[in-house]
Amino acid sequence: MKTLQNYIGGTWTSSQDPNRLTVINPSTEESVAEFPQGAAADVDLAVASAKTAQSAWMALTVEDRVARIIRWADRIEEHTDELAELECREMGKPVGIGRSFIAAGVGGLKASAQEALTYAFDASTDDPDGGRTRVIRQPVGVAAVVTPWNFPVTMVLGALGPLLAAGNTVVIKPSERSPLSTVRLFELLDLPDGVLNLVLGDVHAGEPLAGHDDIDLVHFTGSVSAGRKVGAASGQALHRAVLELGGKDPVIVDEDVDVRATAEAVAFGSFVNTGQICTSMERIYVHQAIAEEFVVELVKAAEAYAFGDGLQADVMMGPLVDERQRNIVGDQVSDAVAKGATVRTGGEVPAGHGFFYPATVITDVDSSMSVMSEETFGPIAPVSVVSSFAQGLERASESSFGLAATVYSRNADHIALAASIPAGVVWVNQWQGGSDVRTYEPARASGMGATGTTAAYYSATRPFTVHIAPDRS
Ligand code: NAD
User: 320, 26 in Cβ contact below 8 A?
Assistant: First the structure.
């Protein structure tokens, strides 16, 4: 079994705390690595190292910083297969899917870092009275990045481009359920010592990091409950917080769609990564005119999702990340059935090793059921029939979350109304579509702080103004 360590100031470093946690392969239930539980003393060391390194990193030219980040990204890219295997062993994602998301994460790191080359870090304007106003955007200083386990590599890389390219140094605290692939990213690291630091552990490391006095920004991705605590700690310390939290994303399926193609697209949105995506489709509102035909097609698509150990080539769906997550999913299905829902396929825990759960379709659901109101994070597609597109919009908007939403329709008036759903992103006729210019801030309890393109640079920098009065001599 591998033993993992922190990476601080360019050195692999033992934790100050003797307590250890274990990574369990969710497909086999075997232990694959042990690592420190984390401690405030580890965090102090890592933050101090980041603080020391920051002025030299900021003093490099932006071209130099970007070139170094790209060089690291290239090395990561060369190790995509190996990283996908590590992700599979630590959290169960099939390697084929893992590879494509890692490739997207590396592409995102490169593209977001390269935006620094055209970002206005220092912009002057002539004032009407003859003076000049100069707006300078400096790196905030030291950033903390705290990540979840569902896309271990991509979540880490996703936050780093703008933070590093703008001249910040960073301390990363990956999820305690998936530290293995993040450790590998640090083994491949090609940045000056102290620019990027790694502290392993659970809340014992996350909490002191999020509230640390010498942190200037925390970029947190995770659950709403932990996000509220991180937000409160940031408020107390008066540093910036970008919070990307959970969702309960709705889908509206209009009466005029290609039923089979849409059912297959909804199956993918509900079951890929075993439903463990913050923007997984978790509430499906289908127009009554096509509802039964849609459910038949969705059930067919669900039954094609072969589950198993993601190291095997033909597996489309891995296990849930752990027993706790499988229990949450199972409890939501039981709650729905007790309140009158019908399981159309799936819904049974299979025998044998691994935290597997089949792709499941349930109907006759309503908002009194936890499966329609709380985040599931599992391969469940709950379908509710609506009498009109307008009713679909109304139901889709009834949630305390507001992360993303998807609408399938050919009706131009309905497509125009899709933007009325409270969400950071609304996709029309293609889940997860869109280009790199995407900028969003989650609505409601799904988060706080805009990300994407220049918004990410706004949060990675602090603007200040120098005003030069006109020469009146
Ligand atoms: P989690 O909140 O349990 O943990 C996330 C991270 O926060 C982990 O590294 C954990 O150790 C750390 N943490 C926990 N408590 C903390 C505290 N009090 N202070 C500081 N750090 C703390 O979430 P999870 O189970 O790892 O991930 C799943 C959740 O993440 C889901 O709710 C999912 O929707 C969300 N998520 C959101 C996005 C997004 O972009 N909005 C993306 C992926 C996942």
Answer: yes
